[in-house]
Amino acid sequence: MIPFGSQRASGQDLATHLLNAHDNEQVELASVRGAVARDLHGAVTEWEAQAHALTRCQKYLYSLSINPDPRQGPLTRDQYEDYIARVEDRLGLDDQPRAVVFHTKNGREHCHVVWSRIDAENGKAVQLSYDREKLMAVTREFARDHELRLPDGYYREGDERQQGDQLSLYEKAQQDRTGLTKEQRTGEVTAAWRQSDSAKAFVRALEEHGYILANGKRPYVLVDRYGEMNALPKLIDDKTVRTKDVRAFLEKDFPPDKLPSVNDARQQAAQRRKAREDFERSRGQSDPEKQDRGEQLKVRQAQRRQPLEKQNAALIARQAAETLKLAARQHDEKRRLEGTFRDAMERLQRSRDQNRPTGLAGFLGRVTGMNFLVRALRVQQDVRRQRKHEQEKARLAERHKAEQRQQAQRHQMQTLEITRRLHALARVEQRERQSLDTRLLRESRETERRDTGRGSVDRTPDRKGKKDKPRDHDDRYYPDIAKAFAKAADDGRSGGDDDGGGDSGGRNFKSVFKNRGHTYKGPGKGKGKDHDPDLGR
Questions:
Q1: How far apart are CA 224 and CA 262, in angstroms?
Q2: What is the greatest pairwise CA distance in the chain?
Q3: How far is CA 3 from each of CA 94, 118, 164, 206, 303, rounded to the nearest angstrom?
Q4: Which residues pair with 416 in a beta bridge?
Q5: Comparing C-alpha atoms, which of 520, 476, 516, 474 is closest to residue 194?
Q6: β-sheet with 26-33: strand ranges across
Q7: Exposure on the CB side of residue 344, measured as CA atoms within 13 A
Q8: CA torsion sign, 30 to 32 to 37 to 41?
Q9: Could you give the CA distance from residue 88 to residue 137 in angstroms, rounded to a whole number?
Q10: Helices (H), 68-130
Q11: Nearest alpha-carbon partner for 330 in 268, 393, 287, 275
């Protein structure tokens, strides 16, 4: 088994990548620890908020992929848990928030673990020093205890893992888009380099493979037929060839300032691709299988989205019902308060009317002014009752507003949660569509190379430094030299020009033809497709 760990940021992109069901036959979010949210996007959002609020840590996540050797059988879930626990103990990630995701791809199960490096209690990030060496030590111990066999590099103390076979993200993206591996690109360019004795021949050989020589941020880069750019010296698999050697070889015939820019080269490649696509469309060539795969992906995504959309619709209906229910209850409370006050005032007025003094008492009250004092006292009492009622109404209104705010906040949080999950699902769906488009694009380009015969030649490198030899016979690399010279001699005797005869400046024609991969058909006046204008100059 081989673990690969790295500190990183961009938690949303990582979550989207891990939940991409198109590139994997099965995706399982096994567990989430240390987060309120139960989904991966929500968890990494919380961890990112902690990182920004409590620390200055930029790479707040530690991502680990655990890839068992399929030849030794899959690991059990208990074995995965054991290995993860050992890694946590060795790296100091015990009790840190984490998420565990299992993928099944091409029938092989592997695991991804994402930890938050943020220690929320202490307000700092967990320091991860020498994590690669610690992972190697943990892997050796785990393999020993579970009787697993590891690559030889794990058993040599102090030996670093070979990273030469690890593709960078840029190289991996190129390979996914084009179907051309790094080894194929290197093989094509290296073969062209070793078989060319001049800069012009080298550039022509590159063009046969679909490469355009361009000038980028540094001189001499190659843009392939798909618009992908790579530095030319890095594609020459020869440790004796330096960048300065490539520049010295090319700069006389192809000075950098005379070359097209990378954007111009990409436009040329795009025009060529468009011309071919138009030609295929004109022939009525279409691949219904690709359309079916796109429709199948849409159906799967719709089926996966359907429960969440139903949950969202149910949430909207429930929130609307809760809002109406709260409004009705508050309206009833206000009506009861008004009714209670009105009934109390009516009872008080009837009581006053029934107890009003009459006869001599009424007369004495009017004469002495007692009735005036009683009315004034009652008015004051009514004012106090009205003020008390208004205060009760104000308190009730304030309580109603608080209830409305609480309900609105609760509804907002519910809506945000479901909206966040829908948005996260949309990101996953977009990534899946990109993966499908990339796979279809790669397949179409592989088909194009097969149809046009531009596939890379399988070569066996000569360890003695000689030129590569193709395993299969190919006239481009093994021209019939004797026939070519015989034809040249016949053409010379028949009165053709002598510009191509002789040594032509002391150059060895046999090596020229063999290196360039052209068959010389005589220097006659005509300039057919096999005529090389550089010969004899």
A1: 11
A2: 163
A3: 18, 22, 16, 38, 34
A4: none
A5: 516
A6: 2-8, 61-67, 108-116, 98-105, 26-33
A7: 12
A8: negative
A9: 13
A10: 77-91
A11: 393
pLDDT for position 153: 63
Instruction: List, as one string, the DSSP characters of 355-421.
Output: T---HHHHHHHHHHTHHHHHHHHHHHHHHHHHHHHHHHHHHHHHHHHHHHHHHHHHHHHHHHHHHHH
The neighbour count for residue 216, using CB atoms within 10 Å, is: 19
Q: How far apart are CA 342 and CA 333, in angstroms?
A: 14
pTM value surpassing 0.70: no
- Residue ranges of the domains in the chain? 2-155, 169-282, 289-451, 479-537
pLDDT at 288: 66
Give the Cα separation of 70 and 67 in Å (integer). 9
Q: CA 491, CA 500: separation in Å to the nearest integer?
A: 11
- Rounded CA gap, 245 and 237, in Å? 13
CB 229 within 8 A of CB 222: yes
Query: Tokens standing for 183?
Result: 């080894």
501 contacts 492 by C-beta, under 8 angstroms: yes
Q: What is the pLDDT of residue 177?
A: 77
Residues facing residue 433 across a β-bridge: none
Give, in words, the CATH class of 2-155.
alpha beta
Residue with the two structure tokens 């008004």:
338
Question: Which residues of the chain have a pLDDT value below 70?
Answer: 152-167, 280-290, 451-537
Environment class of 255 (CB within 10 Å of its CB; exposed 0-12, middle 13-18, buried 19+)? exposed
pLDDT of the residue at 504: 36
What's the Rg (C-alpha) of the chain? Answer: 41
pLDDT digits (tens, 9 = 90+) for 380-411: 989 999 999 999 999 999 999 999 999 999 99
pLDDT at 216: 85
Closest CA to 272 of 222, 339, 227: 227
